[in-house]
Amino acid sequence: MQSQPIKRVVAGAIAAAAVITAAGVGVPASAITLPALQNPPTTATDALAQYRAAAGQAEQLNEQKLQAQEDYNAKQADLAKANGDIAAANQKVQSAEADKAKFQSVVDQFADASFVSGAEMSRMSALLTGTSAQDFLDRSSALAVLANDKNKALQSYTDAVNAASAAAQQATDAKNRAQAASDQAQQLLNDLNTRSAALQAQVDQLKQLSTRLTAADRAAQRDTGGSAPNLPAPSAAAQKAIDVALSKLGDAYVWGATGPNTFDCSGLMLFSYRAAGVSLPRTAASQQQTGLPVSRSALQPGDLVFFGSPAYHVGMYLGDGKMVQAPTSGDVVKISPLQNDYAGARRVAY
Q1: What is the DSSP string of 105-166?
Q2: Bridge partners of residue 325, in order along the sequence
Q3: Hey, what domains does the chain have and what are their CATH numbers?
Q4: What is the mean pLDDT of each run of 10 residues along the chain (350 residues)?
Q5: Is 252:262 a contact under the CB 8 Å cutoff?
Q6: What is the Cα–Cα distance from 264 to 254, expressed in whole angstroms?
Q7: Is the pTM of this model over 0.90?
Q8: Residues 6 or more apart in contact with residue 173 via CB below 8 angstroms
């Protein structure tokens, strides 16, 4: 049963991709990258090799599903903000319209007074009709106050008109943003459902393959990989994250889990660095955009190491070419060599 194990592994991976395509959920086979092999021991049975290949495919689908969920949640937040902006803009419109009506009444009163009084509303009129210099000064002062009030009323009215127009435009813009966010959210939800269905199809395939595993196969999956390299991290935060991750050796891999006792690959990184006071996004692809890029020759303990493009797997570098990771379904958090399909590293603690 152990002849040509590598060919069996590749065959298992191709079979797993075929299952996804046959599921008919809209995920093209070309979008699925063959997983990096987990360096199974030479004594691994064909069943274990095929299971690991299929589990690697499932891990990719899980990360893609999580990314779709993250994108959908972000767009839902955009939609909620746009709806909030609509409500706020409508309140501004109502307030501005009320001010506009109030100052319209005042402006109309001044217009009526000017029409009825005619030329009497002038300093010359005050001079000609006054009985004394003091009378003239009093009347002029009163006219100045009226003119000032009139100008203030006109300015307030103009401001209210402009405010109403600006608020109406804000409401229109918010409505357009809300509609766009709603349309995009629906597309992302469709994508999320597609990827969820693809993952479920792969899970069903794994269940079938798991029935072929021997007791020795299951013991191999529980192997935690031996001792970690005794190399210090360059910062206290990185060392804390390493210590937390290593404390989880032997904990089970579960799709979508972020601890405290089960993890997927990016969930283990998020959990470990959160304990060190460093916030990370949810998925491997998103985590690949954080921190500072690090060349492979400059790797230090605590660096996040990524596999696939876009990244579908992430581990934490320990030194000596090793990492701690939550590999795939049926496996446990373990120490292992860096995998194939290495795609770069990021330093998130300094």
Answers
A1: HHHHHHHHHHHHHGGGSSHHHHHHH-SSHHHHHHHHHHHHHHHHHHHHHHHHHHHHHHHHHH
A2: 334
A3: 1-221 (1.10.287), 226-350 (3.90.1720.10)
A4: 40 41 38 41 72 83 84 87 86 81 70 50 49 54 56 74 83 86 84 84 85 89 92 96 98 93 96 98 95 97 95 96 93 94 95
A5: yes
A6: 5
A7: no
A8: none
> Which phi and psi (to 5°) does residue 192 adopt?
-60, -45
Q: Break the chain down into helix, strand, coil percent, rounded to 5.
A: 60, 10, 30
**What dihedral do alpha carbons 68, 21, 18, 283 form, nearest 10°?**
0
Under a CB-based contact definition with an 8 Å cutoff, are residues 342 and 307 in contact? yes
Residue 41, SS3? Answer: coil
Give the tokens for residue 234.
Answer: 């360059």
Q: What 3-state class would DSSP assign to 324?
A: strand
- Compute the Cα dihedral for 81, 87, 88, 93 and give only its sign: positive
Place of tokens 């030479």: 42
DSSP secondary structure letters along 213-250: --HHHHHHHT---SPPP----SSHHHHHHHHHHHTTTT
Q: Are 304 and 2 in contact (CB under 8 A)?
A: no
Q: Which two tokens stand for residue 181?
A: 């966010």
Q: Give the C-alpha separation, 139 to 130, whole Å.
A: 8
118: left (phi over 0), alpha (psi -120 to 50) or beta: left
Tell me the C-alpha distance between 105 and 111, whole Å.
10
Check residue 62 and give its pLDDT: 83
